[in-house]
Specification:
3-stranded antiparallel β-sheet, elongated, alpha+beta, about 170 residues
Length: about 170
């Protein structure tokens, strides 16, 4: 099997699609064919929960098409992140081009899904019972930042709240 290389170049994609804020996918067709008309909403939601559009039997992620049509460049190895965590929201202000690592880190902040082994209930904060401390950890642009918050039995909850506030401040600054 030879992998199919998809072109997310503005000149190529603009022949088929145009930005359309009224379309659920964020796109409409830019030309009339046997199956489509100019201005007709483009795309369908795929099994993985993202809007997709097709050109010559090749499937394209609508979010990547929106970025490309807005003049954005998606380097090899980069992905389009949905800032609000909703993969169906392809408004340009909700899309950003990031590395896979950044995308993996950011999706956990938005989704609020707790790992089964997370004892604190907050993504990015771990608890070390044996050393009476909370540890915040976050990776931004490939750089890991950690901070340790030591507590005693009298101030455990206050220290935990301080760790949460610290991590929230970092997340807001991203």
């Amino acid at each position: 099997n030879i992998p199919v290389i998809l072109s997310y170049e503005k000149d190529f994609l603009s022949k088929y699609f145009q930005i359309d804020p009224s379309s659920p996918s964020g796109l409409s067709h830019a030309r009339t064919t046997k199956k489509t008309k100019i201005g007709q909403r483009a795309g369908a939601v795929s099994q993985d929960g993202y809007w997709k559009v097709c050109v010559d039997k090749k499937s394209y992620r609508a979010s990547r098409v929106v970025v490309a049509l807005n003049g954005g460049i998606i380097p090899v190895g980069y992905v389009v992140n949905h800032i609000d965590g909703n993969p169906l929201n392809n408004k340009i202000e909700n899309l950003e081009v990031v590395t896979h690592a950044e995308n993996n880190g950011r999706c956990k902040f938005v989704s609020n899904k707790r790992r089964t082994d997370n004892t604190t209930g907050v993504h990015g904060i771990s608890h070390c019972k044996t050393k009476n401390r909370y540890i915040t950890s976050i990776t931004i642009d490939g750089k890991r930042t950690r901070k340790v918050f030591n507590y005693n039995n009298d101030n455990r909850q206050d220290v935990f709240n301080e760790a949460v506030e610290y991590l929230d401040a970092i997340k807001r600054s991203i």
